[in-house]
Amino acid sequence: MKTGPDSGQHPTDFVMQLWQQHQGAISRALLANEADPAARQDLKQDIFLAIHQAADRLIAAEMPRAYLFRIVHNVTVDHIARAQRHKWQPLDDDMQQQLLDGCPSEQLGEQQQSQQLMLAVRQLSAANRQVILLAMEDLDAPEIAAILQISHGAVRVRLNRAKTELMELMQHGR
């Protein structure tokens, strides 16, 4: 289905459609990167504004979903850089459950394993956390490479490192 000006779809409609389709993934990315609900809401608004401002580029993008996640990534990285002097806060039980609701990792079976997995994801380095979160959202290697602006080989290396680190964290129960 062709979208954008040639199909008569208004850029705002296209942005809203993308936002609605990927709102769960965006919310999970926010939960994984920001513990404070007020800061998370501000970050969500910043992301929505950036997506709206990039509407024409999103329409023209070869991979709009990858471009959307690139925007989410960039805004989140900027947010983290601004808040770098603050330490990550541990997730409370309610926030953990919000992160797990609807998350592909929930298919692992028991809720305890899923909670342990998401806690381990929070302990990964920023680069490993970002690549594993994108993979958990079923993005393929070309999309992840486009989002992070790295090569396919680098995506594979980061995914392998992230999986190895996650396995170690899960085995040691850190």
Question: What is the CA-based Rg, rounded?
Answer: 17 Å
Q: What global shape is seen?
A: globular
- By oligomeric state, this entry counts as single chain
Number of strands: 0
Beta fraction: under 5%
- How large is the count of helical segments? 9
Structural commentary:
With 174 residues, the protein is mostly helical. It has helices spanning 11-33, 37-53, 55-60, 64-82, 93-100, 111-123, 126-136, 141-148, 152-172. The longest helix is centred in the first third of the chain and has 23 residues, at 11-33. It is globular, with a radius of gyration of 17 Å. 28% of the residues are buried.
Please render the helix and strand layout as text.
Layout: H1 11-33, H2 37-53, H3 55-60, H4 64-82, H5 93-100, H6 111-123, H7 126-136, H8 141-148, H9 152-172
Helix pairs in contact: 1-2, 1-4, 1-5, 2-4, 4-8, 5-6, 7-9, 8-9
Features of this protein?
single chain; 174 residues; mainly alpha; 9 helices; globular; disordered N terminus
